[in-house]
Specification:
CATH class of the largest domain: Alpha Beta
Number of helices: 13
Number of strands: 7
Largest sheet: 7 strands, mixed
Strand order of the largest sheet: 3-2-1-4-5-7-6
Strand content: 5-15%
Helix content: 40-55%
Distance between the termini: 52 Å
Radius of gyration: 20 Å
Order of helices and strands: HEHEHEHEHHHHHHHEHEHE
Shape: globular
Structural class: alpha/beta
Length: 319
């Protein structure tokens, strides 16, 4: 890898304000990516603060190490999914952390690398394999799923992960096409989407929706989020905060519901007395509604447009 891994952190100031890492804090960045958020956090937590950065993408970790090497042993990078937060912290001998950040979705670097298989642009479609694995240790690529998934499975992914009009029609078209020849490249899949004439009535290119659905299925992104959020809440010390940036309505719904369930529906600003929340609430929700990027940020970074930011604070355990 060249070492160049441009990472424009989305909603950086809003994220830092909600995470509110103090001097000397221990923070876990579960999706360290190119290190943009991590670098800002390290600067906030001062010379005695520590950051544990997780990512399943080996290229991202290599780039982060190059970018943040000057922080020395204040940063520990681990190739792992954030769904394994507890296991990673256990191996490091850490019981609790002061904050957890999850910046979900696919990175710009992954999108812009044709060999990773996330792209569907026509200019590179012929040479873009249908891979879509964020972690190349995963056993199945998108091409594998297209080759072996049942029609009901394909339909469910396209419907639930992309809200694609014509989900069943496309699933049937894929099942018929794979009997004739493998669906191996972005060009192959784009041709099928075009021939099936699905996605009408949506403002997005239907290929955007289809590729999004397959990416989520390949990486089990929603399952990982459910597991990771549960672990994140468990490892937070009282007063610690979990902050999540999501880019898909299904992700945001999982975060919203998890926070709501752990707060028993209660929300309040920082400083609200814990007794207001009752004895079984574990969280105080800090964002009644998700924060969104400013128009200025959207203009600078179009990929931030779908971002939704939510945060919650761990409450003291009931006596």
């Amino acid at each position: 890898m060249s070492g160049e891994y441009d990472h424009v952190p989305v909603m950086l100031e809003e994220t830092l304000d909600l995470l509110a890492p103090g001097r000397g804090a221990t923070v876990l960045d579960g999706t360290v990516g190119g290190g943009g958020h991590a670098e800002a956090i390290l600067d906030r937590i001062g010379p005695n603060g520590r950051l544990i950065g997780l990512d399943v993408d080996a290229e991202a970790l290599e780039a982060t190490q190059l970018r943040l090497g000057q922080y020395g042993d204040r940063i520990r990078l681990v190739r792992s999914s954030f769904r394994e937060i507890k296991a990673v912290l256990g191996e490091l001998g850490i019981d609790e952390v002061d904050g957890v950040l999850l910046d979900l979705g696919v990175s710009s670097r992954q999108l812009d690398s044709p060999g990773r298989g996330f792209r569907f642009g026509q200019e590179t479609a012929d040479v873009t394999p249908l891979d879509m694995r964020m972690d190349d240790r995963l056993p199945h690529t998108a091409a594998d799923l297209l080759a072996h998934a049942s029609i009901p499975e394909l339909e469910r992914w396209f419907r639930d992960y992309a809200d694609l009009p014509g989900a069943r029609k496309l699933a049937r078209s894929i099942a018929a096409a794979r009997e004739r020849a493998p669906i191996a490249t972005s060009a192959d899949l784009r041709a099928l989407i075009r021939e099936a004439a699905v996605g009408r009535g949506r403002r997005h290119d239907p290929a955007t929706l289809v590729f999004q659905a397959l990416r989520i299925a390949v990486n089990d992104e929603l399952g990982a989020l459910r597991d990771g959020l549960a672990d994140a809440i468990d490892v937070l010390r009282p007063g610690g905060r979990v902050v999540v940036l999501s880019y898909h309505s299904a992700e945001d719904r999982i975060v919203k519901n998890a926070f709501r369930d752990q707060a028993r529906g209660r929300t309040g600003p920082p400083g609200t007395p814990d007794e207001i929340f009752g004895t079984d609430a574990r969280l105080r929700v800090l964002t009644r509604r998700p924060l969104r990027p400013s128009p200025a940020e959207e203009a600078r970074n179009p990929r931030a447009r779908s971002a939704r930011l939510r945060a919650a604070e761990k409450l003291e355990a009931a006596a």
